[in-house]
Amino acid sequence: MKVVQFTIPVSKEHTIVVQEDILPHYYNHLHRHREVQIEWVVEGTGILIAGNYMQRFESGDVYIIGANQSHIFKSDEVYFHPEEDKKIHSISIFFDPRQLSENLLSLPELTVIRKFVDSLHNGMQIPESDVIKKTITEIVHSKESMRVASFIKLLHQVSTVRNIKPLATNNSEQIISEVEGIRMDQIFQYLVANYKKHISLTEISEIASLTPQAFCRYFKKHTDKTFVSFLNELRVNEACKMIVSGKFDSFSDVSYQTGFDNVTNFNRVFKKTMGQSPREYLKDFRERLI
């Protein structure tokens, strides 16, 4: 069986590494790297897991993934169907925050930006901004010193944005070993592939090669969530996708297709997770479209 790396190396040829991808789907495994990653999802949908954070990502979203923060942009199932002509389009910018702070950002005029870069441990979601996307496009099409200049401009723009949403509530991933990272990937892969059916604690513990009691402690340590709450969150995110797509007959149908045992439990968990009922969520979505 092929061993999947948890820590992915990023090219060291430049201070700022820019990568533009048009692929069938995002890289399909939990991983980390020492570089901060600025990610513009130009086209694509799925679920983002970053540390103990999870939510759906949509086309147009811009995220910052912290250094050594374990993460996966898990594309929706439709991207893995050979008969579907779906593609993801992404632009990724990687940089080593320590190297940047010690060298380029050591200038006194860049103190505010340096402090901002030093605060990126937990990652964040950048609010919708055409200005920021325009600057990312400039970086993609610039070379050498002009790319560096555009990159500094991007950091300035992002550092002055208000109401930035942090991703994880902590970044404990730096203490996770390669073996633990691969084990967490196996757990996430199983949950994402099987969330529609009942998953017992014994079943998922066997995937992790742990006893149920040890698994509960292990999972809580690395996600700050219980197994049940994480699984419910995953199911609610999939339910949100179904609701906004309009491809369902009833909320009972959504409940069944996302792995909940009954609609009452689905409504309770959905409201606890999203702060509103499925019906209210659909109403808000339709009003935003109008």
Quick summary:
Keywords: DNA-binding, Transcription, Transcription regulation. The protein is α+β, with helices and mostly antiparallel strands and 290 residues long.
Please characterize this protein's 3D structure.
The chain is α+β, with helices and mostly antiparallel strands and 290 residues long. It has two domains: 16-166, Jelly Rolls, CATH 2.60.120.280; 195-289, Arc Repressor Mutant, subunit A, CATH 1.10.10.60. 44% of the residues lie in helices and 17% in strands. It is built from eleven helices and nine strands. The strands form two sheets. The chain has a six-stranded antiparallel beta sheet with strand order 1-7-2-5-8-9. A hairpin with a 2-residue loop joins strand 3 (46-50) and strand 4. Helix 2 (111-117) crosses helix 4, helix 3 (130-141) packs antiparallel against helix 4 and helix 6 (201-207) packs across helix 7. The longest helix is centred in the C-terminal third of the chain and has 19 residues, at 227-245. The radius of gyration is 20 Å and the shape is globular. 31% of the residues are buried.
